[in-house]
Amino acid sequence: MDSRYVNIVESYGSDGLGNPSVSIYFSHCDRKEILGEFCKNCHNKELQSEGSGVLLNEFQIIKLLESKLAEVKNIFGKCSLVLLGGEPTSYLNIKMTKKISDYFFGKYEIIMYTWKSKEELIEDDIKNIDKIVCGSYVESLKVDDYILATSNQYIINNKKEIILKYNRSDI
Questions:
Q1: How far from 134 is each of 57, 66, 142, CA to CA, in Å?
Q2: 3-class SS at 141?
């Protein structure tokens, strides 16, 4: 049975794009291996390398998520499942990401954060994810009037169609 290092936490707004959520933070990011560096000022530096968090197998992760999702949904009437990291699409995490999204798809809204662009994502890997936040955190592009951290980031659906993209309106 597959095991991964993860951290599972409840979030009441930020991870779930304004909705209550349960977030699973995967350990390991492959950005440095692919592009030569991690995102500058990454907000989860401790998750860049493998081994941070708690080592859980697939069954333990699913059961813990089921419990926490039901608890948050019971309190707020709705709840999203958020996959982030580290990097949920890294070669160490993608198998578990797919198992989790396959299991919970249709039961909860599933949101995933990735540094990758929509062109870099494999359609089969995202078929059971409702919203994907794409794009690296870029400090110089930080904006205060946007739901995402930086203006280069955007949200797509599992068909790679853009749902939200920064559009600055100069009034």
A1: 27, 26, 15
A2: helix
Q: What is the pTM of this model?
A: 0.93
Cα(24)–Cα(37) distance, rounded to whole angstroms?
23
DSSP 142: B
Coil, strand or helix: which one is 5?
strand
Question: If you count DSSP H runs as helices and E runs as strands, how many of each does the chain have, helices first?
Answer: 4, 8
In this structure, the dihedral spanned by the alpha carbons of residues 107, 113, 116 and 118, taken in order and rounded to 10 degrees, is 40
- Whole-angstrom distance, CA of residue 103 vs CA of residue 92: 19
Q: What is the bridge-based pairing of β-strands 109-114 and 54-57?
A: unpaired
**pLDDT tens readout for residues 130-167:** 999 999 988 889 888 888 988 999 999 999 999 989 88
Give per-residue burial for 13-44: e unless 16+ CB within 10 Å, then b.
eebbbebbbbbbbbbbbbbeeeeeebbeebeb
Sheet (strand 80-85) strand order:
54-57, 3-11, 21-26, 80-85, 109-114, 131-134, 154-156, 162-165
